[in-house]
Structure formats: structure tokens, C-alpha cells
Amino acid sequence: MSAFLTSIGYQHWVLPALLVIPLAGALVIWVHGAVTRPRCAPGGDEVATGVAAAPRGWALATFAIEFVVSLGLWWSFDPGNTGWQSVVDWSWIPMWGIRFTLGIDGIAVMMVLLTTLIMLLAVGGSWTSIRARTHSYYALLLVLTAGMLGVFLALDLFLFYVMWEVMLVPMYFIIGIWGGERRIYASLKFFLYTMVGSMLMLAAIVYLGLAARDPATGLPNFNYDWILQHALVGSTTAKWLFGAFFLAFAVKVPMFPFHTWLPDAHVEAPTAGSVVLASIMLKLGTFGFIRLAVPLFPAAAMSPTIRSIILLLAVIGIVYGALVSLVQPDFKKLVAYSSVSHLGFVMLGIFALTVQSVQGALMVMINHGISTGALFFLIGMIYERRHTRLIDDYGGIARVVPMFAAMLTIVTFSSIGVPGTNGFVGEFLVLIGSFRTEPVFALVATTVVIISAAYLLWAIQRILFNSLDKPENEHVPDLNKRELAVLIPLVACIVWLGVYPAPVLRRMEGAATKFVSQVDARRDAMVTADAQSAPEVQP
Amino acid sequence: MLPLLQAAAAGTHPLQGTAASWLWAVPLLPFLGFLINGAFSIVSAYHAGPADPTLAHGDGHGDRHGTHDEEHGAHGDDHHQVKRHPFAMLTSIVGPGVLLLSFILTAAIFFAMHGAGEIATPFIQRYFSWMPVGDLKLDAAFQLDQLSMMMMLVITGVGTLIHFFSVGYMQDDPGYPRYFAYLNLFVFFMLLLVLGANFPVMFIGWEGVGTCSYLLIGFWFSDKANADAGKKAFIVNRIGDFGFLIAMFLLFANLGTLDFDAVRAASTSLQFGGALVTAICLFLFLGCAGKSAQIPLYVWLPDAMAGPTPVSALIHAATMVTAGVYLIARTGFLFSIAPVAQIVVVMIGALTAIFAASIGLKQWDIKKVLAYSTVSQLGYMFVGVGSGAYVAGVFHLVTHAFFKALLFLGSGSVIFAMHEAYHHTGSHEDAQDMRNMGGLRAYMPWTWALMWIATLAISGVPPFAGFFSKDEILGGVFARAQHSTIADAHLFGISGSAWLYFAYLLGIVAAFMTATYMTRMMIYTFHGPNRTGDKEREHLHDAPWIMTGPLLVLGILTLAGGWINIPEFARFLGPVGALERWLDPVVGASTQRVIAGAAETSPGLEYGLVGLAVLIAIGGIAYAATRLDPKSLVPKREAVPEEGFEKVLLDKYYVDEIYDAAVVTPVVGTSRGLLWRGVDAGLIDGLAVNGSALFARFVGWIGSQLQSGQLGTYAWVLVIGVLCVLGAVTIR
Q1: I need a surface site. Which of A80, A114, B246, B497 has the fewest CB within 10 A?
Q2: pLDDT, tens digit, for every residue of A210-223?
């Protein structure tokens, strides 16, 4: 396989192609819409009238191509090489020293694959649930994909910021246009929350670019590796800059107490919106910590006070998210709060800073993408049938929709981390790794294995089991073939990553180990450098 | 594919190249059964379309709800014609078939092991790398030693019998293939649990069996009580699993490995009686208390009786619930250097034994009696393994698997008969309440005879299996109270010796109660006048041979099972201490560590203890036989409610209610009131988020006031501004 990929020069074009393909698809759909739309009746049911056929077909084809293209990364990526791979580096805005630089490491590879898979399935999940303005919808979905992939691929900090904003806008519209009743409130909240953080991040990025000015030309330089080596800032400045990045990413993760946009956004977003939000967008926050915030400012991020505060917030989020999930009457909101809990594990893993905990954090990122994505798909499917998300409106439907019940049960077991499913691998690694450096935090976080079982099993009992006492639930049709086609790949991943995660772990090992050792080394180096140059700093 | 990847590490092991190289197939066979039966279940459900909405729920037939109502819904008054599942025939072959194959293979491995002579080290098969992360190297690996061998024999052997019994018991159930899929999956996980070569692989099995237990307890999920019971079992088990996890974290953080072999080797570096090893053992025991239903986590097991009765026999009596006992035997090398933890295990075990036995004295539901009896017997096993008498504890695990499986399957036959009888007349009485039984001996002679054998065994009457094993536990704890490393330790300022004597006393009293409640159960069920009903009576009969056959085999095992470890005083029965010699490579060293080279009790004392135990057993039986009068009983619907302490016992000391009030309600209340409504909606969203929005609007409002469009205002602002600037400059 690798030989074939080399023969077609895959390494050289894959990363730009991953950005171009969805944008081209979006353009085609947009043009098609612009040309044909005047002939359609506005505001009608486009699935019924057949208008939706073209955009969703195009989108499906584009995402399929995108997924197949990205799949080559699994083989072309060399786990033994810890440097950037498949790099492209083009001049973009020379007068400000901004370049178009893309590259991947083991972490980015897995995130890219997760994204392309989830987005392909998201088309399947939107197939009949999006019935209005389908051209715009699928075009936005494609632009969103390009934005998210751009964040994972960017090696130029300015490009990173641009991509960060690019993905924000389509999501705002997806929630705001195709969302539920309170979609305006939710989309605005989502937008403002994220915006506050990203504005500060922009300021920090510009500061860094200027600080890393190229001595030869005097131009700012935003290259990641360059900044890592040359943007030497004092420890107080580093803390401020870290704070700016922290706010941008912590909102995205979301960490307690910056999480309240999430339940609203999830509940109001259409199915695919919730899936993308949970599966991928939240990971951009944690990815930001691993890629930027922590490696750039190791001394600030890992200073005892800041680190303790972040660990504390992570563990509060873990427990708090689980407890609040317990009492949610709305299933979608329940899953949203459970995300706060799961993402808390990721933060705990990153800041506990052991190889196991960081690898575990990365696994939780992937697993949460798969399991929570599947949960939102399932909620969307049953919502399409019964038009309610309230747990109490169901009950006993396992005998009416056995296939749905089987799927929901498997995904639930994955989400509560039953060993043999993917959920266990991530949580276990985070906890066993964190326990080495932070036993108390790990101990508290471990209690969530009890609470998570309680909130999810209680929920599925009230949905699937108990007596079938509501007449409107008696004739709900079971999952159809399209819906199974969406779910089965996710269930397969749940089992695969639970039983044999080693190939994934091996691919991420280089990057994770590098992260831990680099942060450790640079933290110590910077502390010593500070002690020499700036004696006012507290040790 | 699996074994070909790597069979290394065992290299020159004497079992290399024998039947033991097929070890991987033992769990894989049930897993295949799960896949096939699962496919039957899914395919049929998928083609059946929406289920019949007329399947509304009735009440009153206890165990066999689902079946009963499905039949009613589908067939009206015709009680004899039953629509079987389309894949029933295939399921009946696959379900028990894979288990039988698995058992045959296990037996072959056993003979290979037996023939290979002394095997001092475990036979380890590594299949693939599971979680390779930094210095954590976890392989998917199995280990075969004498202990896991014995567990495999029990699991596949008793498992096969119960699978065959299930064919008769469950075949009219609409979820028949689903039932066998779950049951097969359970056996797979149980085998994983005992075969795992490291803690995490064992943990897959550990939680996997819990998951299957959840699915099977809630098998008839349309009844909220059943679904509740399944959920409760899972969550309570998870409390234990929390302990298991923390123990693993402690082990890895301090010893750097989780392989049993490596941990055993590294454990020599641990300080005897140190805080670390004590903490590890106590956290492990928390896991055991969850899985094996010990105080304070025993509450899920009685509720678990909501599942089909063969499930209760297999999972909630013979195999899964003994996993905790197995874990302590497996990690005996840790417990033997943590005497304080051992005292805790022994005391919890002894208290559970007597506490559950006392509840068993007053239950009316035949399965509830057996459930509390199981909790109580598990307590005995923990007294055994806790006091370092690993062989005795494991021995009781084996004999208990025989006689308790027999008791549960026997009660299954009774319920089956009762249910059919009520079904014929269409009456809705409780098929599990002993007040509705009585005199069944005349109608079900086989079941009657076999259950008496099991009753004598559990009561500890010689020469039945339970006598030998229970006696060995009580003798063992008595001997260790006299002299052992545990006796020298202290807990709460009280010497280990005193604790162990106390545990012995509790064990003796619990033994008396055991004999009493079991005899009570037998008398109320099989003796005296029949209270089932005049019309129903004529339909009562023994179960078909597919069900009674397994009972018969278990009856033989219950009779003779004790002879696998014959004590010194009964040497005329055959070779002495076969099990002890068999398990010596695994637990011998740990046992020696605890008894610290002391001689066993003197023969005179030993005869005295045995005599006392036999007297207690016979006394308990005689007490029940003379004090209870089955003629005075009336059917359930005519019974007067209990009062006083009897009511407290019947209501199980209100422990469930106390847990609800002390834990469940506060947690849910705090989460809803304080965290969600208070912190989330009130503080963060209300004050911070919407507050800052309000603040922004306020600032905007000021701004808008300024842009009033009135020239005068602008002029004033300009003037003030200029004055400020000038003032600032001047003052500088």
C-alpha cells in the first residue's frame, strides 16, 4: 500500500487536497443551487420535492472522496518519524511573513481520519432530517470540514487562526438556520463565547509572530517550529499569552465553568450539527492545548499554580458533568453534559503529563468522537420518528425497535467505558497515567465510572426498557438500511478500538512521547533561564 | 489466527504442544455461540417488524412473566399451543453445543495438565499487544495454572449443565436466541476473567460478566422491576470496580507492572503489613465485595433474582459471584503480606454470612431464600480465603457451585411446574411464593429428592460436599486464630486472634441458621398439605428430562464433590487433600506465609471441631423440623402480614431504603437543585453569561445616550474632554 501511495506522490499533494476537495464540492453545490434555485418553490419540503437529491448526492460523493483520500494517511504516515510529515510550505502573504504551511504528526493523522469519517456519516445522518435550503446546508457542511481539517493541519499560527474562524461561521449558520426552537439564542451564545476566546488568541498569535521576528528580514514569522524556538518571552508575558490561548481553547473544550454554551448549542443544533460539534469541534480545543498552548508556554502551563487550577477544573468538570447529566430530562442535553465529563478526562490526561495519560487523552478524543457521535446520531434517528427528545416520552420501545435498542445499548456501554469497548481504553490510560503524578485528582476522577453508569443506564432504561405504556410509541418503525449504514462503522470502531487499539496507539506514540519529553525539558530549561535573567520570578 | 501470532514466552513449558495449546479456543467457542445466537436474534427481530402492541403486561407469575404474557397476547385461551421462535431449533443446538465442546476441550486440557506432572509455573499464551503505551505493556494474554484450570472446569462443566436445563426452561420464550446469546457471552467473559494473565484482561472479564448479568437480570425488560434490578446490579458492581481500578493504579504506580507473574515477583519488595500493600488489598477487596455481594454492596444480588432462574443458577450462584473469591486466591501473594486487610476480609465475610442467613430465615419467595443463602455462603468463602486458607475457600467455591446450582435449578423446576399449573387455569397467583406450594413431594419426587441432597450438603451434614468444605473453612480459621501472622496483627487495637475467634463463632451461628432456613424452605415447599389450589394441583409434575437430567448430574456431584479434598480424619474415603496438592503451586507459598510454619490443630481438637459442626448442622435441621408446622400455613393471598422483628427480617433490615435515603436521593437532589439549577443555570448562565450580556447592553445604553444627536451634549463632552487633557498635562 505504501509503495502505491509513494508512486502516486501521495505525500506531496494529500494535505492541500484534503482542503481543496470539500471547498470544490461546496462550490459545485453552491453554483448548482444558484442556477436551479429560482425554479424551486421556496421553503418547501425539499426532500419530498426531490430538490435535495442533487446537493446531498454531491455532498455524499465529495465526502466519500475526501474520506478515501484521507485513508491513505493510515499507511503513508511513518510512526517512527517524529517530525512533521507530508509537509507543504507555500508563500501566502509575504509582506507579513505569513505562509501557507501544512503538515501532520501522529495526533493530527488520527484527528483527520476521525473528521473525514464522521463527516461522511454526517451526510447520512442529515439525509432526510434536513428538508429546507439543502443546497446551503450541504455547502456549509463542506466548508466547515475544510475549516476543521485546516486547524488540524496548519503549521503556521496565522493560518491556524484563519482556519479556526473559518469553521466557526458555518457552524453558526447550521445551528441558527436548521436548529430547533431556541436556535437563535443558542447560535448567538455559541458564537459569542467562542469569539471572545479567539479574539484574545489572535492577539497572542500576532504578539508571538512579532516576537519571533526574522532577524535577517525584520519580518514577523508565524511558523510553528520557528516560534517554538525563537519566540522567547519573559515568564510573566508567557503567562498572559498562555492565558489568551487558554481562554480560546478552554471555551472550545469546554472546560468547567466555560461550558454552558454547549448544552444549548447541542440541543438546538440539527443532528449532524450536534455530531460534528461533539465529535470534532470539541477536540479542536484539546488539540489546541496539545499543539499550541502547552508546548509554546510549558513553563507557564506547567507552573504549579496554573497546572493545579487546570487539573482542578478538569476534575470538577468530570464529576460535575456526570452529576448534572444524571438529572437531565432531555436526552440530548444529557449527552451534552456527559461530553463535559469526558472532555475533562482529556484535560486531566494532558496536564498530568505522563506518556500513558497523554496517550489516553488522545484515545478519549477519538473515542468520544465515535461514541458520542453515535449517540447523537441515534437521538436524531428516534427524534425524526417521534419528534421529542424528552426521556419520559419514551419507555419500553426496545420491543418495537429492537435494532435501535441493540445499537443504543452497545454505544452506551462504550460511553460508560465497559472494557472491550473503546471507551475503556481511553479512560483507563488517562487514569492510570494520571495516578502516577496526580493520585488525588485521578482518584476523584475514577469515581465517575460509577456515576456514568448511573446516568446512562438510567436513561436507556427509561427509553428502551420498562413497560411500553405510551400508545404513540407502539408503531415506531425500526432503523432502516441507511441508518444502519451510518451506525455500523461506528459500532465497528467501538469494538476495534476496544480490542485492538495498538495500531492507533503506535501511530500516536511518537507525537505523544515527544509532547511529554519536550514540555518536560523546555519547562525546566525555561525555569532555569528565567532564574538567570529575571530574578523577580517566583520559583 | 490468534494463536499463530505468538505462542511464545511459554517456550519450554511442559504444556507446550499438548492440548493446552488450544487454550484460546475454550473461551472462543462460547463467543462464537454468542455471535451465532446474536445473529438469530437480530435477524428475526429485524424481519418481524414492530412487535404486537397487544402485549400489555399482567402481574403475578413472578419469574416467568414474559413467556406468560406473550402466550396470552398471541393465542388467547389456547394454552397448549405455543409459537416457538423461528430459530428455536438451531439455538437449542448452538447454545448448549458450544458449551459442551468447550467443556470437552477443557477436560482434555485438564488431562494433559494432570499427565504433565509437577507444573510449577503458569502456562502463558500471548496473542497480541493490547495497550502498548510507554512502560505500560499490556498484552492480550491468557495464563493457565492449576487455579484457572479448576475454575475453567467449574465454569464450563456447570455451565454446560445449566445451558441444557435452559433449553427446557426457556424454549417457549420469544427472546430465546437472545437469551442464549447473552448466556454464551457470559461464559466467554467468565473464562476471560479466570484466564487473564494480567489485571486488565481479567478486568475485561470482570466487567464483561457484570454487563451480561445486567442484560440477563433485565431479560424481561418490559417489567420495570426487572429493568431496575439489572441497573442496580450494574451500578453497585461499578462501586466495586472503582476499587479494582484504584488497586490496579496503585500496583502500576508502585511496581510498574500489571502482569500477575511480574506482580508476584515484585511483591517481594513490598513491606510486610505496609500501608501500600494493605491499601492495594483493601481496594481489591472493595471490588470483590461488589462482585461477590458482600456487606455493604450485597444489595444487588437478591434483586438479581428477577432474571430467569437458570441465570440465577449460573451467574448469581455458581460462577460470577465467586469471582471475588477467585481474585483473592489469585492475588494471595499480596493478601498474605497484608494481615490487616485479611482481618477485614474475614470479618466482612463472617458478618455477611450471619447477616444474610438471618434474612434468609424469613423470606417467602423461594428464590429469595436461595439468594440470601448465596450471599451467606459467599461470606464463608471470604472467611476462608481471607484467613489465608485459600484452598478451603476455593474448595467451598467448587462444592457451592454444585449444590447451589442444584438448588437453583431445582427451584427453577418448581417454579416451572407452578407456573404451568397456574397457567392452565389462567390464575394469577405468585409462582415463587412458598405459601402457595407445599406437599410438592408427591408431584415432583425427583426434584424433591435431589433438592434434599443439596440441602443436606449446604447444611454441612456428612458425607455431602458442603460438609467437607465448610468444615475446612471453620477449622482453618480456628487454627489461624491460634497461631498465624494474622493472629499477631491488630485492627482497632484488637488482636487478630480475637477477630478470628469471633469470626469462627459467627460462622458457627450462621451454620445453624443455614440448616434452619434451608430445612424451612424444603418443608414449606415439599412437605405438608398442598396449597397451590384444587384445580391447579393436578397439573403439577416433574420437569422434562432435559431439565431433570442436569439436576441428576449435579446431585451426583453434590454427593461426591467433597471427595476431591478429603481431610485427614476421613482418610478411609480415598486419597487425602487432592485439591490441596493440586493448588499448591499457586497458593501454597502464600498459605505457608500466613500459618508461618505452625502445625495444624491437634487431632483431638480437630475431632472436637468437626463434631461440633455436625451437631450444629443436625441441630439446625431438627430445630426447623420440630418448630415449623406447614399445616398452619395459608396461601399467600390469605396470609396475615408479619409484625415485629419478623417484619424487619422480611423487609431485609430496610437496608435498601436506608441506602436510598442516604445516598441516592441526596446525590440526585444535589445534582438537580444545586448543580444544574443552581450553578449551571443560576450562577454561570444567569450571573456570568447573561450578566455580562446585560453589562454589555448597559455600556451600549450609555453609548447610545451619548450619541443623542443633540449638539449641546456633544459640545459639553468636548469641553470636558479638553479640560481633562489640559488638566492632565498641567498637573504633570
Answers
A1: A80
A2: 888 888 888 888 99
Cβ of B676 within 8 Å of Cβ of A428? The answer is no
Cβ–Cβ contacts within 10 Å for residue A214, how many?
Answer: 13
Nearest CA in chain B to A440: B246
B678: nearest CA in chain A?
A324
Q: Do B672 and A327 touch (CB under 8 A)?
A: yes
What are A170's three cell numbers? 458555518
DSSP state of A223: B
Tell me the C-alpha distance between B545 and B85, whole Å.
Answer: 21
For chains A and B, CB pairs below 8 A equal 169
Instruction: Give contacts of A401 with chain B, Cβ < 8 Å.
Output: 50
Side-chain-facing half-sphere of A119: CA atoms under 13 Å: 33
pLDDT above 80: residue A525: no
Q: How far is A128 from chain B (nearest CA, A)?
A: 21
Whole domain around residue A403: which residue ranges? 302-499
CA distance B561 to chain A (A): 35
pLDDT-derived band of residue A538, with 50, 70 and 90 as boundaries? very low
A63 within some domain: no
What pLDDT does B51 receive? Answer: 40
Does the CB of A182 have a partner CB in chain B at under 8 Å? no
- Say yes or no for a CB contact (<8 Å) between B133 and A359: yes
Residue pair B3/B21 in contact by the 8 Å Cβ criterion = yes
> d(Cα A529, Cα A75) in Å, to the nearest integer?
41
Mean per-residue pLDDT of chain B? 86
Q: Where does the pLDDT of residue B641 fall: very low under 50, low under 70, confident under 90, or very high at 90 and above?
A: confident
Q: Which among B53, B131, B203 is the nearest to A505, CB-wise?
A: B131
Q: Decide if A308 is inside a domain.
A: yes
Closest alpha carbon within chain B to A457: B231
Q: What is the pTM of this model?
A: 0.90
Q: Which three cell numbers stand for residue B645?
A: 422483628
Number of domains in chain A: 1
Within a domain: A162: no
Q: Which helix (H) or strand (E) holds A87?
A: strand A85-93
Contact list, B691 vs chain A (CB under 8 Å): none
Does the beta carbon of A296 lie under 8 angstroms from any beta carbon of chain B? no
What's the gap in Å between the CA of B588 and the closest CA on chain A? 31
Q: What is the pLDDT of residues B204-254, one digit of tens each?
A: 999 999 999 999 999 999 888 899 999 999 999 999 999 999 999 999 999
Cβ partners under 8 Å of residue A482, min gap 6: A124, A127
Contact at CB, B685 and A418, closer than 8 angstroms? no
| pLDDT for the residue B599 | 59
Query: Residue B59's pLDDT is what?
Result: 35
DSSP letters for A417-454:
T-BTBHHHHHHHHHHHHHHHH-HHHHHHHHTHHHHHHH
Whether A439 and B248 lie within 8 Å, measured CB to CB: no
Is residue A438, in this structure, part of any structural domain at all?
yes
Residue A539 burial (CB < 10 Å; 0-12/13-18/19+)? exposed
